[in-house]
Amino acid sequence: MVQAIFKRILLKLSGEALAANQGFGVDPSRIHEIAAELADVHSLGVQIAIVVGGGNFFRGVAVQAKNMDRVSADHMGMLATVINALALQDALEKQGIYTRVQSAIEMNQVAEPFIRRRAIRHLEKGRIVIFAGGTGNPYFSTDTAASLRAMEIKADAILKATKVDGIYDADPIIVKDAKMFPNISYLDILQRGLKVMDATAISLCRDNNLPIVVFNLNHQGNIRRVVLGERVGSLVSA
After folding, report:
1. CATH no. for residue 159?
2. CA–CA separation, 213 vs 203, rounded Å?
3. What is the residue range of 114's domain?
4. Considering the domain boundaries, does residue 3 fall inside one?
5. CA–CA gap between residue 228 and residue 197 (Å, rounded)
6. How many domains does one find in the chain?
7. Max CA-CA distance within the chain?
8. Per-residue confidence at 111, pLDDT binned at 50, 70, 90?
9. 142 neighbors 51 (Cβ within 8 angstroms)
10. Are 148 and 168 in contact (CB under 8 A)?
């Protein structure tokens, strides 16, 4: 029987991953593909928590928010993550997996409030937990929320799903001969100013020695490969 090297993971999904090629909103076929992959990983006995972004609806630092108060714009972005979390919950439950959405912003009609002990209990019972609403505070990204929640639930690693194969020294979509790093330290990311995750998120992981695996979500089966310990993407560690 195949054995997962991580018992509890936190998967960081961008809002754009749910939009696929639409660029806006949620692509129904794409979200069901992601849910099917997560169901496959869940069947290995891995406890899964997810932090989802909201960039497919609204991003607080985007051009569309340039004339807005930053706090208001960030609150709109947090609400966008709740929409994505509910869509993902629906797709996962269609795979037969019990799922809970916990929001950092209270909205009791649609999601539980974030309570750390309750989240851990859900994971222990085999439920997937989706954390929405970011950290609940403006000026913090969902990357920082992912690092924070991963530490709070004592995850073994953060799996950062992207649209490229790993961490590069330049944007590989623009620079064709960009070099990929199979392994890289937290300090190297900060010193090079690489835009993998924001500096706050990387610093949090560094301070608590939490490994990050950055991989391409568009290659089917990659989440399973990472969990089983195959060399996929880039590993960030001390």
Report:
1. 3.40.1160.10
2. 15
3. 8-237
4. no
5. 24
6. 1
7. 56
8. very high
9. yes
10. no
Q: What is the DSSP letter of 178?
A: P
Quote the CA–CA distance of 114 and 120 in Å, as a whole number. Answer: 11
Question: Would you state the pLDDT for residue 1?
Answer: 64
- Name the nearest CA neighbour of 128 among 101, 104, 153: 101
Structure tokens at 75: 């609150």
Whether the pLDDT of residue 60 is over 70: the answer is no
Average pLDDT over residues 113-137: 98
Q: Which is nearest to 115 in space by CA: 76, 149, 84?
A: 149
Model pTM?
0.95
The percent of the chain in helix, strand and coil, each rounded to the nearest 5, is: 40, 20, 40
| pLDDT band, very low/low/confident/very high, at 58 (cuts 50, 70, 90) | confident
Q: Indicate if the pLDDT at residue 208 is higher than 90.
A: yes
CA angle (74, 142, 104) in 5-degree steps: 75
- Would you give the DSSP letter of residue 108? T
Tokens 């950062």 sit on residue:
160
Instruction: Identify the sign of the CA torsion 190, 76, 89, 101.
Output: positive
> What is the mean pLDDT of the segment spanning 116-143?
97
